[in-house]
Amino acid sequence: MKLHKYLHFLTNCKNLEELWAAHCEQMDEFGFDRMIYGVTRYRTKTSLGDPEDFTILSNHDQKYVDGFLHSGLFFHAPMLQWALASEGAASWRMIKQMMASETISKDERRVYDFNQKMGVSVGYTISFRSVSPRFKGGISICAREGISQDQADAVWDQHGSDIHLMNNVAHLKILSLPYNPPNRTLTKRQTEALEWVGDGKTMQDIALLMGLTTATVEKHLRLARESLVVETTAQAVLKASLHNQMFTFEA
Fold first, then answer.
1. The predicted structure's pLDDT at residue 242
2. How far is Cα 19 from Cα 12, in angstroms, rounded to an integer?
3. Nearest 10 degrees: CA dihedral of 125, 14, 242, 127?
């Protein structure tokens, strides 16, 4: 799909599934057949936040996802550390240079060995511009097996500007779409109650608007807090808003 047509498609996607399937197909046309996209909205100076609150998209096989993501190995990945401190795009040649100069840590070496074993050794990482200190997003695009880093760099030299633009637009679109983290999905009533709180309504107002008792409204808000793993209703409104679970057509 040509750039103009693809960007038009991206900006009109209605859900993550549609967007991600098309994006994987588009990157595959450039020779990058496996990807991991991630964004956190809860970054601090000492943490990336609760992994269950991350937005993670990947078309790697389950064995790789389990070994790299679910085990926590990803946190020590050299390119992730680069992405957290940088913006833009970088070749994975950087990792080979670290290995050659022996500036790689023991934990980073574990990641390198795992990726070599799984055939994830050639590619690029894109670190997106953050919209706030608490946001950070990036994507790693891995070249299909049989492609060398020299070949991947040659593809980037020719098409890197377009690939970077496509990923930037995909990232911005993902941020605008509803995302329901596993085990943190709100019911329709919980969402409605949070929306009224976000509109500044009192508990009595919400009960009247929803045709419920105040006790039932409080129950919906308590369950929403539990689902989102927060302590206060204000935090629940913020988290639901950041994940676009409020004021959406789906809601």
1. 81
2. 9
3. 10
By the 8 A CB rule, do 40 and 54 touch? yes
Which regions in the chain score pLDDT beneath 50?
251
Full residue range of the structural domain in which residue 30 is found = 3-176
Q: How far apart are CA 112 and CA 205, in angstroms?
A: 57
23 with 127, same domain? yes
Specify the pLDDT at position 245: 84
Per-residue confidence (pLDDT) for residue 249, from 0 to 100 = 64
Q: Domain with 134 in it: what CATH number?
A: 3.30.450.80
CATH number of the domain where residue 205 is located: 1.10.10.10
34 close to 60: Cβ distance less than 8 angstroms: yes
- What would the two tokens of residue 175 be? 């941020």
209, burial (CB in 10 Å: exposed 0-12, middle 13-18, buried 19+): middle
pTM of the entire predicted model: 0.84
Q: Are residues 193 and 234 in the same domain?
A: yes
Tell me, yes or no, whether 248 lies in a domain: no
Report the domain count for the chain. Answer: 2
Same domain for 8 and 97, yes or no, is yes
Does residue 141 lie in a domain region? yes
Query: Hey, what are 30's tokens?
Result: 């450039």
81 burial level (CB within 10 Å; 0-12, 13-18, 19+):
middle
